[in-house]
Write a structure and sequence with these properties.
about 220 residues, alpha/beta, Rossmann fold
Length: about 220
Amino acid sequence: MSSRIVVLISGGGTNLQAIINACELTDYPGSVVGVVANNSDAYGLTRAQNASINTDTLSHKDFASRERYDQALIAKIDQFSPDIIVLAGFMRILTPAFVQHYQGKLLNIHPSLLPKYQGLNTHQRAIDAGDKEHGVSVHFVTEELDGGPVILQAKVPIFDGDSSDDLAGRIHEQEHRIYPLVIKWFCQKRLSMQIKGQSELAILDGCILPAAGYANDE
């Protein structure tokens, strides 16, 4: 049975499109059943509608607190009975209650090689630091901002004279490759998050993933 995927967005939805494209493959084990945006102008909503996917909008500006917004967002998401919730450019810091409600089935993609450069402006920060490589990380979401266990990373080089836009373009290509792959692992029930003591761990095929996530030298 195909896993039910709900995607949260705030903007253009290029990662959403990559996920939609992957789901159209005959052997993909999941399907996007709903897309929710906090911005009614998000072009990702149009992408979803073009693929005949149900959409909904919930503006954070209509709520007095982050907590009240997240409770209303939970109600929206749960209407879709999701197996997995995917953050794809959803520009909100989530409350502990929201994260706990979806513990173990909430994924995010972050444009850096975590734990480096948590937060915003990651491309420029990597350039300013003189780094020779940059990248993107898919991770489980926990209460720590951009701090959940990493599942998979992809690296790109930083060339002399690169702008943040140059780097962003290189990163986006990798995002569109690895995010659908990680979601596929989850839908196949090969991937999970486990809590052992004080540690939150990503588990793939029964093995604990290292700090930088899955690594394949092939």
